[in-house]
């Protein structure tokens, strides 16, 4: 058979697709496919992109990934991928891949912050990195350094980072970019259930008959899950009902039976309307509510997570910026808010609301209330009030919007319908993100439609391991592994014992969250920062401030990167790192499914893995340098205790944290699990044995490996944290034999639905005889009691064994709502992603096919707004906020169709660095930034 290479590849792809679909394949096509694949080695892996966690098959030949296809054995995606998934290989082979360390050096070869980048050896890179770290560490103490972590870390990378920063440096200043996407969901889980992550799983898509999509453009952001929703809808079109709730029309609207376009921030009002309707219609599942829940509320005057106004003014923030920032301390109550808050009885329209509970733990404080108090609280949220407040499309009639709200309530309240509510950033990136997460559970718990097949509120994850790494491992500034907290003495003691650290090593004070690290750099409180697997200077709101601080202030920024993105160009030192399939790893997806993969190929040039950079840097610290007394951080000297444990003060952090004798003994390399199931060949392991490149390492010698299976050692140690504590994970080898398992994994069996005795062994352990549910999460399970005005006796707390909380949280106006703006900022700005690109575009903008499909970020605008402003399609406009401005081209016919008064601009394009414009307001509880709402003005460039 004569066939070109192009036809070979096309035939191979067609055969793979046909096989996944179960179609009969002609023998000639099979032969062509086999010829094309000659010499390929296939292995299972996980997609690099979103939190869906699709399984993929990777083909390698000659140390290169040559093909990717969907894994037909994966229960997540069942053999298909989205457009990004099919390009998992090409993201690794961009022309400008970073392959050697780069340091800013002057002509004399000295580090100079204002000098250009020049290539250096690994030893020179680590020497400068060490010198700068110790200078600032000794000046400021453990709180003067920080790590920007990631929901894109592998689980082992995140665990290594937590050990180094918290156990080694005694700092809690490590926070992942998952703070930008999942922190509000985390707080919602903690507050409501006392434990993180969803109760349900993806099987709910097929088992339900009603899907509510809240602020989640699943069609573009989670396309494989949306394909499952679409399949379920098309297979049962008369029964299966889909509702899309959003602030603008998107691709989910094409499938939806009903679309509700609401005004930004008014999802709070809609949820309270639903709660009121559930009560009015006698739809409360009283058997469930009385057995398994309590009612609760908290303070309203919590601010907006903005900078302290006094600090902002002292730092020279402009008067325009201060107009919004002052609301952190005090705001004027609007007519709309006066009604929403009327049951509390503290504020009238025109009153000044002083934010008395805007600092520290105050926003988290909550207490139990009676059902009667709850009922009184939601009473103002009538259909008339809610429709007037929440209608988001000026061109839709009020009557039409009211009918939709009534239909929404009909669907939720129908006892014969199951209900699944999905959400992502529309809820999480919200000045009241924790509240709205709590409120969606309020609706489901009132109805008893939670933690059961086809019934539940389900938070979809943005990043591939925002669950597995950021949350489960504990890379947040306040967390330790398996839901433990740095502020809890018992949790610190458990962690110190597990890590074999002296008692008192761990810092009890919560560290700086992601945005606060940026603010601390601007204030000079943090002077050394290390970036892992993310792009902070492109992904953080109010970027002008952080770009200026990084480049002009006394500090040193290190960035681990694979391509020269914005943060790499901001840095003082760039370390070239291996990408996804150039290292061993694991991810945890949105349904609690943990999946592992083997290293497939070796990284190019001198690039090394992130774990290697951490382990090598750990060699630069002797215990006497880090475990001494730190008065600045109120940390004791623990060296005597270390000596009593058999350590020497001259031992290094590498020895104590990463090179332990038991690792060598228990996890030798080579390991049989590294053999490819298809060919029997050993997969590479750069950290364990080095590789054929003979990279000259951090000590100036050729790196020959650590001599043991470090990824397996880290995994097996990490999983001990969760065993017996409802976070059980399987052993390393098991994950390499299966397509992932949903935790808790007990006696080899995964758990599909948590808190339900029919599926969850921990629910069976905790439930009372004859009861079906047990909400056994241990956190925040004792609260005071009170009224809507406040707790009666804040110090007296009542335990809540196996109870979930049904919260009342009121609607409040966003601090930059254009409706109340008198300075010309008359448009809402919303940001987000598009199907073709991943986050900041660092990888996907280097894939020619994806670049051609979406080469630049556009400003999606309603045609009527464009006409009123005298704009034509693709005109260049300025998008200006109180913080900055960018230029983008107008799109009036695109897939995203905003109502009048709102524009949508995606953030993947560094040439349209929209985060220069965005407001750095956060949820006061979760500290997650509200990227969905800022006031802007638009005019022709």
Task: Using brief descriptors, characterize the structure shown.
941 residues; alpha/beta; seven-stranded mixed beta sheet; 36 helices
Task: Briefly say what this structure is.
By secondary structure, this protein is an alpha/beta fold. The chain is 32% helix and 16% strand.
Structural features, described:
The chain has about 950 residues and is α/β, with parallel strands linked by helices. Helix content is about 30%, strand content about 15%. The strands form ten sheets. The protein has a seven-stranded mixed β-sheet, sandwiched between helices. β2 and β3 form a beta hairpin. The longest helix has 19 residues. The radius of gyration is 27 Å and the shape is globular. The termini are far apart. The relative contact order is 0.16. The model has no long low-confidence stretch (mean pLDDT about 95).
Shape, please? globular
Instruction: Please count the beta strands (DSSP E, at least 2 residues each).
Output: 35
Structural class, judged by helices and strands?
alpha/beta
Strand content: 15-25%
List low-confidence stretches.
none
Enumerate the strands of the largest sheet in spatial order, edge to edge or round the barrel: 5-4-21-20-19-6-7
Average pLDDT number: 96
> Taking Cα atoms only, what radius of gyration do you get, to the nearest Å?
27 Å
């Amino acid at each position: 058979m004569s066939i070109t290479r192009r036809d070979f590849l096309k035939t191979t792809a067609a055969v793979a697709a046909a096989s996944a679909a179960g179609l009969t394949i002609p023998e000639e096509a099979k032969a062509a496919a086999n010829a094309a694949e000659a010499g390929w080695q296939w292995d299972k892996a996980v997609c690099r992109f979103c939190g869906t966690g699709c399984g993929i098959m990777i083909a390698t030949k000659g140390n290169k990934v040559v093909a990717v296809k969907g894994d037909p054995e994966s229960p997540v995606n069942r053999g298909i991928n989205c457009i990004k998934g099919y390009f998992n290989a090409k993201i690794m082979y961009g022309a400008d891949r970073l392959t050697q360390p780069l340091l800013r050096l002057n002509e004399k070869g000295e580090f100079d912050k204002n000098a250009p980048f020049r290539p250096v050896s690994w030893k020179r890179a680590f020497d400068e990195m060490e010198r700068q770290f110790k200078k600032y560490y000794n000046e400021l103490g453990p709180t003067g350094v920080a790590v920007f972590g990631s929901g894109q870390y592998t689980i082992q990378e995140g665990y290594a980072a937590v050990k180094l920063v918290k156990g080694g440096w005694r700092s809690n200043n490590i926070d992942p970019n998952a703070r930008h996407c999942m922190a509000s969901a985390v707080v919602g889980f903690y507050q409501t259930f006392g434990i993180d992550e969803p109760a349900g799983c993806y099987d709910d898509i097929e088992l339900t008959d009603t899907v509510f999509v809240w602020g989640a453009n699943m069609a573009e952001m989670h396309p494989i899950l949306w394909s499952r929703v679409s399949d379920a809808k098309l297979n049962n079109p008369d029964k299966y009902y889909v509702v899309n709730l959003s602030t603008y029309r998107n691709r989910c609207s094409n499938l939806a039976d009903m679309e509700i376009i609401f005004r930004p921030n008014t999802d709070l009002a809609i949820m309270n309307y639903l709660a009121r309707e559930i009560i009015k219609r006698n739809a409360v599942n009283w058997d469930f509510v009385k057995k398994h829940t309590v009612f609760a509320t908290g303070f309203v005057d919590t601010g907006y997570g903005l900078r302290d106004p006094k600090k902002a003014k002292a730092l020279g923030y402009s008067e325009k910026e201060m107009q919004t920032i002052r609301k952190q301390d005090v705001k004027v109550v609007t007519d709309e808010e006066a009604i929403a808050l009327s049951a509390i009885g503290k504020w009238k329209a025109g009153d000044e609301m002083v934010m008395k509970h805007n600092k520290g733990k105050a926003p988290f404080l909550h207490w139990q209330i009676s059902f009667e108090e709850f009922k009184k609280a939601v009473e103002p949220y009538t259909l008339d009030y809610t429709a007037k407040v929440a209608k988001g499309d000026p061109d839709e009639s009020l009557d039409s919007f009211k009918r939709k709200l009534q239909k929404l309530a009909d669907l939720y309240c129908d006892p014969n319908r199951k209900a699944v509510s999905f959400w992502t950033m529309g809820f999480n990136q919200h000045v009241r993100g924790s509240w709205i997460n709590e409120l969606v559970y309020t609706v489901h718990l009132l109805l008893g439609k939670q933690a059961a097949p086809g019934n539940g509120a389900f938070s979809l994850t943005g990043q591939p391991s925002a669950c597995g790494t950021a949350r489960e491992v504990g890379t947040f500034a306040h967390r330790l592994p398996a839901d433990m907290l740095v502020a809890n003495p018992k949790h610190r003691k458990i962690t110190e014992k597990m890590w074999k650290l002296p008692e008192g090593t761990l810092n009890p004070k919560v560290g700086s969250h992601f945005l606060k690290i940026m603010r601390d750099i601007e204030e000079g409180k943090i002077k050394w920062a290390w970036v892992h697997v993310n792009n902070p200077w492109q992904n953080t709101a109010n970027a002008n401030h952080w770009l200026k601080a990084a480049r002009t202030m006394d500090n040193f920024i290190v960035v681990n990167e694979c391509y020269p993105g914005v943060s790499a160009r901001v840095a003082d030192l760039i370390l070239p790192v291996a990408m996804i399939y150039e290292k061993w790893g694991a991810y945890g997806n949105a349904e609690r499914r943990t999946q592992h993969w083997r290293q497939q190929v070796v990284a190019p040039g001198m690039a090394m893995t992130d774990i290697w950079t951490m382990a090598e840097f750990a060699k630069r610290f002797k215990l006497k340098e880090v475990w001494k007394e730190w008065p600045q951080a109120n940390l004791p000297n623990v060296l005597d205790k270390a000596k009593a444990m058999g350590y020497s003060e001259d031992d290094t952090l590498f020895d104590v944290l990463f090179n332990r004798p038991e690792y060598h003994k228990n996890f030798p390399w080579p390991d049989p699990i590294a053999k490819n199931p298809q060919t029997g060949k050993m997969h590479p392991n750069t950290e364990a044995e080095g590789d054929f490149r003979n990279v000259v390492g951090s000590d100036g010698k050729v790196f020959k490996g650590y001599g043991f299976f470090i990824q397996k050692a880290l995994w097996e140690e990490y999983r001990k944290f969760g065993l017996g504590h409802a976070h059980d994970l399987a052993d390393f080898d098991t994950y390499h034999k299966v397509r992932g398992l949903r935790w808790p994994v007990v006696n080899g069996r995964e758990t599909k639905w948590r808190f339900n005795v029919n599926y969850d062994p921990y629910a069976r352990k905790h439930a009372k005889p004859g009861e079906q549910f047990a909400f056994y999460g241990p956190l925040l399970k004792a609260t005071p009691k009170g009224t809507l005005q406040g707790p009666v006796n804040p110090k007296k707390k009542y335990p809540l064994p196996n109870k979930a909380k049904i919260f009342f949280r009121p609607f409040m106006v966003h601090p930059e709502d254009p409706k109340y703006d008198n300075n010309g900022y008359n448009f809402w700005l919303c940001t987000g992603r598009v199907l073709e690109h991943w986050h900041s575009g660092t990888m996907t903008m280097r894939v020619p096919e994806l670049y051609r499909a979406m080469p630049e970020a556009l400003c999606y605008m309603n045609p009527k707004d464009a006409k009123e402003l005298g704009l034509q399609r693709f005109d260049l406009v300025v998008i200006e906020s109180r913080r900055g401005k960018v230029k983008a081209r107008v799109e009036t016919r695109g897939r995203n169709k905003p109502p009048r008064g709102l524009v949508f601009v995606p953030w993947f394009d560094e040439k349209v660095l929209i985060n220069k414009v965005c407001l750095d307001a956060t949820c006061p509880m979760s500290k997650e930034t509200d990227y969905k709402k800022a006031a802007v003005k638009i005019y022709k460039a």
